[in-house]
From TrEMBL:
This is EGF-like domain-containing protein. It comes from Magallana gigas (Pacific oyster). InterPro entries: 6-blade_b-propeller_TolB-like, EGF. Residues 11-26 form the EGF-like domain. PROSITE patterns: EGF_2. The lineage of its organism: Eukaryota, Metazoa, Spiralia, Lophotrochozoa, Mollusca.
Amino acid sequence: MCVNTASGPQCLCSEGFHLDNNGKTCTETSPFFKRGFIVNNATMFAMHEIHSANGQSSEYVYVHIPSSIIESFAVDAELDIIFFLDRENNFLMEHNIKSRQNRMLTSVSSAKDLNFDWIANIIGWIESKESSIRSFSVNSQITDTIYANLQNPAFLTIDPHFG
């Protein structure tokens, strides 16, 4: 949308788009919105835009992940990446929101409760059958067991301010 202002015309783009250098053209940056909720069912992610202040109806964006059963997911909002546990194939996967490409990161056995530490770029999860907590470094591509022989770990979280 472009409007005339006292200093001349100014153009703005909708969420999910950025204004090109020509100052007139909007280009899609991501199919997902800057704010909202991402939810999933077994084979799909859906982004629900938030309009809490103005009461506008929400838009929805869907991404279907074929041949997978999504167990749990975590988001790197800076890089537009969704990390997810594929229960069908027993993999930790990466879905690039912009390119819409999936990539297998590492194998898992009974993974649940995926978390992403965006400070250290580490993904963590619980391996139920092994009663352990494992991690995958996005930077080094190394998988490691952080804790083993735990008594039925149920939930995992990461301090968002300090990793």
